[in-house]
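Field log, afternoon session.

UNIT: design team B
ACTIVITY: writing a sequence onto a fixed backbone
BACKBONE:
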């Protein structure tokens, strides 16, 4: 009886190219040690200062790293240091969604069904207060909707603004960075809807919702 041929072994993931490995190590050093000078980073990696500077320039272009000037220990000669941006921080694993779900579960258990919405509405009201500075009621509605869409885009929602019939506008969010929480607590989406109404001062209707399995969160603004 002929022996069966051996099963093929799974292919290992190809190693990162050397320049990408170097960039990854730079990000790890900044994550572990905080702001560093280019000389410090080059020394950690055993490479030249110009070489480290080139990689840091690429990371700056990608929005992962930024530079600033500071005095060591609060005194001495100013020096340029590099640090992670918010986007660079987001490249590392986080457990925020798990923590948020756990906190909301305890809020609900301790204070009852309506407590979760009450907490999230308080958060939304605070956000609305900040946004209203940039979206004053004196501006035309279309411009306020555009500014709200831009803010959502910056917050990671991949939002676009689309025109509608009868003078209405649409905000379409094609990503939900809070999806894990929203699937378990629909109050999060409801409080967001309340925030849109408060900020824009007109009726807002949600037509679709990512957390329900649809492709986007689609909000109709206006009549």
């Amino acid at each position: 009886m002929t022996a069966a041929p051996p099963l093929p072994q799974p292919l290992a993931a190809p190693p990162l190219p050397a320049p990408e490995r170097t960039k990854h190590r730079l990000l790890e050093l900044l994550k572990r040690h905080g702001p560093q000078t280019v000389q410090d980073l080059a020394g950690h990696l055993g490479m030249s200062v110009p070489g480290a500077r080139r990689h840091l320039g690429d990371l700056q272009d990608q929005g992962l790293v930024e530079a600033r000037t500071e005095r060591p220990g609060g005194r001495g000669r100013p020096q340029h240091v590099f640090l992670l941006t918010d986007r660079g921080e987001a490249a590392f694993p986080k457990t925020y969604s798990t923590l948020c779900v756990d906190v909301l579960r305890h809020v609900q258990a301790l204070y009852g069904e309506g407590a979760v919405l009450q907490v999230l509405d308080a958060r939304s009201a605070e956000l609305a207060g900040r946004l209203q500075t940039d979206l004053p009621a004196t501006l035309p509605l279309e411009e306020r909707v555009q500014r709200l869409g831009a803010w959502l885009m910056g917050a990671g929602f991949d939002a676009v603004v689309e025109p509608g019939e009868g003078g209405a506008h649409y905000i379409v969010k094609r990503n939900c960075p809070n999806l894990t929480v929203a699937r378990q607590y629909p109050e999060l989406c409801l409080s967001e809807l309340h925030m849109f109404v408060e900020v824009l001062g007109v009726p807002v209707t949600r037509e679709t919702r990512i957390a329900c399995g649809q492709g986007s969160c689609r909000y109709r603004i206006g009549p």
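LOG NOTE: The beta strands are 65-70, 79-84, 159-163, 169-173, 204-208, 217-221.
NEXT ACTIVITY: expression trials, pending approval
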